[in-house]
């Protein structure tokens, strides 16, 4: 929040960057934090809730595998991610949610 912003400004100013560059760096960091963490948390919460409200189990069993094949050709093995995580996490709401959850989980594993 505000403390992180002030900390970045003071730190970059101390290193020797001008104030405008410090503000630019702080803005870029703020946007990056907002994009990654807010969207990751938002997706996790809303998709789990949606999956439990709808009867997502039937949709998951019936869904075609071809809709993800173009992504798999690019080297993103979403089939493996989905199959490995279905048992742990329970219900899903739709194909798009499955893909976004798998991708966000992959990024979380890469980060941590």
What does this structure look like?
The protein is mostly helical and 112 residues long. The protein has one domain (2-111). It contains six helices and no strands. The longest helix has 35 residues, at 19-53. The radius of gyration is 19 Å and the shape is elongated.
Q: How widely separated are the two ends? A: 22 Å
Largest sheet: none
Q: Which stretches are poorly predicted, pLDDT < 50 over at least 5 residues?
A: 49-59, 82-90
Order of helices and strands: HHHHHH
Radius of gyration: 19 Å
How many distinct domains?
Answer: 1
Helix content: over 70%
Number of strands: 0
What is the approximate shape? elongated
- Provide a count of the helices: 6
Q: Determine the structural class based on helices, strands and strand pairing.
A: mainly alpha
Strand content: under 5%
Query: pLDDT average, as an integer?
Result: 62
Q: What secondary-structure arrangement, pairings included, does this model have?
A:
Elements: H1 2-15, H2 19-53, H3 56-62, H4 69-73, H5 78-89, H6 95-111
Transmembrane segments: 14-35
Region (Disordered): 52-112
Biased composition (Basic and acidic residues): 55-68
Notable features of this structure?
single chain, mainly alpha
Short characterization:
With 112 residues, this protein is mainly alpha-helical.
